[in-house]
Amino acid sequence: MTETRLTWQESALKAAFAELCRALGGFRPAARVPGVRVSWQRLQQYASPADEHAECFPTADVIVALEAEAERRLSRPFVTEFLADALERDVVRRDKSTGRDCLRQLSSEVTCASAELIAKITRDVADGIITEQERHEEMELLETQIEKLQAYHAALGGQRGDAIVLPSIRSRAGNDPSPSSSASSGARK
Prior knowledge:
Layout: H1 8-23, H2 27-31, H3 40-47, H4 60-74, H5 78-86, H6 99-125, H7 132-155, H8 179-185
Helix pairs in contact: 1-3, 1-4, 1-5, 6-7
């Protein structure tokens, strides 16, 4: 029998999966989680670094089912955290509301917070003096505005250069929502 050596990533993936199963009470309870279609023995093999199980890795559907349960109970996606870390990414909880309505709501909140802040500053500087109370109130409004902008930024994906595809929104050039196709067709972004 030839010896199979796991890479550090493979070993770490198996360790993260084992930790996920332990967090759910062990392999037997994890096998009873709705959506898990394999036995507890198979879950154990997925987590095992032993040579005879070196090529046995958890399937995506099993990870999703177990992590959904772990999120419900513990608010921690063990395997997803490992994968994100390996790619030097962060795991950020997505707002449950998605798509166009979420962005409309957040856009409205950003706009209202901006208007309120601008109105407050305009009133406060009218007499040429900003009191300590006015400064404190402006700082609170500014902090609220920053929170709203951060939420909007996160909803957009937090990255520059990537097109955001919303349900039922397409460019006039076809199904490609990228800025370059919109610009070349004359469509607005």
